[in-house]
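User: I'm new to structure prediction. If I give you an amino acid sequence, what do you actually give back? Let's try with this one:
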Amino acid sequence: MKAIILKAPGTNRDYDVQSAIEQAGGQADILPISRLRSDARLLRNYGMLVIPGGFSYGDALGAGRLFALDLSRFFAEEVGRFIESGKPVLGICNGFQVLVRAGILPGKQFEPHRFTLAHNENGSFECRWVRLMAPASNSVWTRGIDFIFCPIAHGEGRFSADSAEAIEKLEKKGCIALQYTDSSGELAHGSYPENPNGSIRDIAGICNPEGNVLGLMPHPENAVFEWQTLALADRTADGARKLFENGLRYAAL
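Assistant: Good question. You get back a string of structure tokens that encode the predicted 3D arrangement of the chain. For your 253 residues, that looks like this:
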């Protein structure tokens, strides 16, 4: 079963994701969102959906907002069917912003729009390598992963909620899937640059309660080849590659 990488005008990591999926042993088609508008049932031909990073629609009206509007207005039924069938869905960086703003993450068990990805705390675009840990969660994507080393590249990546209660529910439901850590593997506790954007609870990625939908701000697709990570001491491509392997394995079930 193939993966579909759904691109909009301004996304620019679609080929990176395609290469990462191929490196993990899968196949993927890149499909412009305009094709899906002509026939939303095309989604049914795929076992995995990825929304890649970039600057969809030039981040007009806010990062990921117009792409999210596409999903919620034009494809809500088909995307909802895809998710409810248990197929894996991944949103990376701008794709994560899309999933949150479309109300797809963290899922139906949560009140809509209680979470957002705000401007980085320091007000700057951050482009650096980060270390992530995968705490115990429901995510099928992070199973068997301890740490992931991969880059971030965003200006609006600060995961935020409208209340402490909302974050507590997120944790209770097993939806905190990835967190920023320091070099020793301990939580960053908001310390910059280990936590590059000021995300609450060092959250780098969340999943839905069912675990098949994952959104994260860092770019694992840019850390799946050994040549991408060899220059970084004690850092390998294993964790990032395994994330894609997990998604492909789950899509085949």
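You can read the tokens as a compact description of the fold. Here is one thing that stands out. The mean pLDDT is 93.
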